[in-house]
Amino acid sequence: MNDLDLFAATPPGVSAITAGELQELGIAVREVLPDGVAFCGDHAVVRRANVWLRTANRVVVRMGAFRARTFAELERHAAALNWRAYVEDGATVTFRVTARKCRLFHTGAIAERIARAAGVREAHGVAEATGDASATEATAAGETQLFVVRGVRDEWQVSADSSGAHLHQRGYRLATAKAPLRETLAAAAVLASRWDRRSPLVDPFCGAGTICIESALLAYGRAPGADRQFRFTSWPGLDKRVAAAVAEPAGSASKQRPAIRGYDRDAGAVAAAVSNAERARVTDAIVVAQQSLSAFEPQDTRGWIVTNPPYGLRVGNPGELRNLYARFGGVARERCSGWVVAFLSADPALERATGLRLEPVLRTENGGLPVRLVIAEP
Fold it and tell me: Quick check: 11 and 365 in contact, CB under 8 A?
């Protein structure tokens, strides 16, 4: 268990950012792929990645890969894997199965045969063909050990999940506003904005405060997963000292304490942001207030605006959004000279309405919707 084959699964387009995080944590990267980052290490590395990665969805151990075109081949290869390293004999587990262009395609039957070969019991009704790890409550809550089985052209890979609940579930965002932004995507936006972690950062459409909170955790060097549990702590043979270890500093904290501010015109969103900041224990690091975009006046000569404005698809009237984006661009040009402006966008037409010279730096998805982070320096 000292040289585990590890993989940090990421949202689309985010793997390069996650690779940078791993390197900052002192973990060598083996390969950067479109859907994640491959690396290796022992249980201590598994823990460090889970506790500290801000942009990954989950961390899995790749148990083995093999070719199988029949159920007999599938069972034979599955039986040879080291299941006992992750679950006790006879334990109830969850399988998430995907099969693309494979001779074996019935995901339920595949999960059943692998469970039999592994000597475990499959949790009822949890074999999935969609690839959605949160398809069942048991999987989403990390209440059973999840095994991910992926087949492409009869080549199969089996992985053991080490995270449990999705890594975006930090534990602080219990209060939400309209169209909430996942913590992992908020962190990716901040990192991709090239924020120096010292200059002021403002979110003028802060909603439930996720961007501000993730920025504070980053600048103060606080682990995003310090207050939650992970699935790997229940693995047989795990060194209890690893499971009980305190989240040590990552060495990335800013020596300065940047001013982080969030504004929203909706009082309910501001209340949610304050409540979430209290749970995240960052109320000493951020200021949240009710304020319209037009009232924003920067208090510093240089800083960053990082935000997730309405897209017009789930929140906002499309007819009014053009004026909002034009006003946003006007405020940035007239009052924020010397500032970096970065925002998530789903509509190039709304980007053009800002009148800013924008550079796309990240392409990903938010709630299944293609979005990109664009940056300007007015």
Answer: yes
Same domain? For 124 and 24 the reply is yes
Residue 148 and residue 216 in one domain: no
CB contact at 8 A, 285 and 168 = no
Tokens of 69: 């075109």
Tokens representing 291 are 């304020």
CA torsion sign for 179, 15, 9, 23 is negative
**Mean pLDDT for each 10-residue chunk of the chain (378 residues)?**
90 98 96 97 96 98 98 98 94 96 96 96 59 45 87 98 97 81 97 96 97 97 93 90 71 74 96 96 96 93 96 65 95 95 95 96 94 93
> How much is the pTM?
0.91
The CB density around residue 159, as the number of other CB atoms within 10 Å, is 23
50 domain-assigned: yes
Does residue 92 sit in the same domain as residue 190? Answer: no
Rounded CA-CA distance 23/37 in Å is: 11
Same-domain pairing of 114 and 74? yes
Q: For residue 250, what are the contacts with CB-CB under 8 A and spacing of at least 6?
A: 24, 25, 52, 221, 223
